[in-house]
């Protein structure tokens, strides 16, 4: 039916040109899948991302965690040039692999503080299949590895125009912010509302700060009937900590390594050692207390030994 429509409408199938130079079409497809051992929260997050990315393809779970190069064959099979792989370990930790198949590069990140859309209960909503606006922090331009991560995130989360299952609407924003060496990802709805009479009225500056007075003054500058734009978070939200960047797709030499990253296994081991240290300290104090009571003869059921020069022995 699409070919019949194009032939009847007279549209050309050739690439459009600008000043004799053909415009390169942005073709991005993302393969989303997970490993064995993911929890229900991990699975719900994967479904939320799949709903936000209409140009993505979801596949079954991958049985192996060592032969990740097989993901390149799966991406080629489904005609995808981006891979988003969720690797679960011990039912607690979640690692995310972002790769540009088949030549790379690959970024491995540790995911923390993940919250799905259903558990946040935000009032916002967005149209399924719409395209997002990607907002990157200025910190992404300060280091080469951050520039590479920014480019990879824009390829994965940036829905190309005219992609399959997309709608010609832009109604949500995805924000990528760097703080404390981590990437904070949030999703907001772009809500457009009509200015009411209360917004057009003069603002009361009694007890208001300068920032609030400025925002109210901007609102009063608009006329009644105009629309104002606000951002409402819709979820999901999560935090990514970059670990390593590989040169090729799921392999190759390491071109960047985060020296400040601490494995969650090491964190849990240190917590167990701290608890064990407190327990050994309490045990030592208990032994010392029992020994001291034994010396003083205060322990129940123990007969105290008296010396030869004690009054109880001399005047018995």
List keywords for this structure.
about 325 residues; alpha+beta; eleven-stranded mixed sheet; two-stranded antiparallel sheet; 9 helices; 13 strands
Task: Put the structure in a nutshell.
The chain is an alpha+beta fold. It contains nine helices and 13 strands. Strands 3, 4, 5, 6, 7, 8, 9, 10, 11, 12 and 13 form an eleven-stranded mixed beta sheet that branches. The protein has a two-stranded antiparallel ribbon with strand order 1-2.
Please, could you describe this protein's structure?
With 316 residues, this protein is of the alpha+beta class. It has helices at 2-9, 40-52, 70-77, 117-120, 144-157, 197-200, 210-221, 264-296, 311-314; strands at 17-18, 21-22, 30-34, 56-58, 82-89, 93-99, 106-115, 131-136, 170-179, 182-194, 227-233, 237-248, 251-257. Strands 3, 4, 5, 6, 7, 8, 9, 10, 11, 12 and 13 form an 11-stranded mixed beta sheet that branches. The longest helix is centred in the C-terminal third of the chain and has 33 residues, at 264-296. It is elongated and about 125 Å long.
């Amino acid at each position: 039916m699409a070919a019949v429509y194009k032939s009847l409408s007279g549209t050309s199938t050739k690439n459009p040109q600008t000043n004799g130079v053909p415009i390169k079409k942005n073709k991005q497809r993302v393969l989303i899948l997970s490993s064995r051992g993911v929890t229900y929260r991990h699975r719900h997050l994967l479904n939320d991302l799949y709903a936000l990315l209409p140009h993505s393809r979801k596949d079954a779970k991958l049985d192996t965690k060592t032969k990740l190069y097989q993901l390149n064959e799966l991406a080629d099979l489904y005609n995808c040039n981006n891979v988003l792989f969720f690797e679960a370990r011990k039912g607690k930790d979640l690692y995310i692999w972002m790769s540009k198949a088949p030549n790379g590069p690959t970024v491995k990140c540790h995911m923390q503080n993940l919250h799905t859309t259903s558990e946040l209960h935000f009032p916002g909503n967005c149209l399924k299949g719409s395209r997002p606006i990607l907002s990157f922090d200025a910190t992404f331009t300060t280091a080469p590895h951050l520039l590479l991560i920014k480019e990879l995130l824009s390829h994965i989360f940036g829905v190309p125009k005219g992609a399959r299952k997309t709608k010609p609407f832009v109604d949500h924003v995805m924000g990528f912010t760097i703080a404390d060496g981590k990437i904070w990802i949030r999703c907001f709805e772009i809500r457009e509302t009509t200015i009411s009479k209360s917004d057009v009225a003069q603002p009361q500056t009694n007890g208001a700060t300068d920032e609030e007075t400025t925002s109210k003054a901007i609102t009063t500058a608009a006329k009644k009937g105009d629309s104002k734009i606000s951002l409402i978070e819709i979820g999901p939200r999560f935090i990514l900590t970059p670990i390593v960047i590989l040169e090729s797709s799921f392999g190759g030499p390491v071109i960047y390594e985060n020296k400040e990253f601490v494995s969650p296994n090491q964190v849990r081991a240190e917590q167990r050692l701290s608890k064990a240290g407190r327990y050994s300290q309490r045990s030592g104090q208990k032994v010392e207390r029992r020994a001291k009571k034994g010396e003083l003869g205060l322990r129940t059921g123990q007969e105290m030994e008296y010396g030869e020069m004690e009054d109880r022995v001399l005047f018995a």
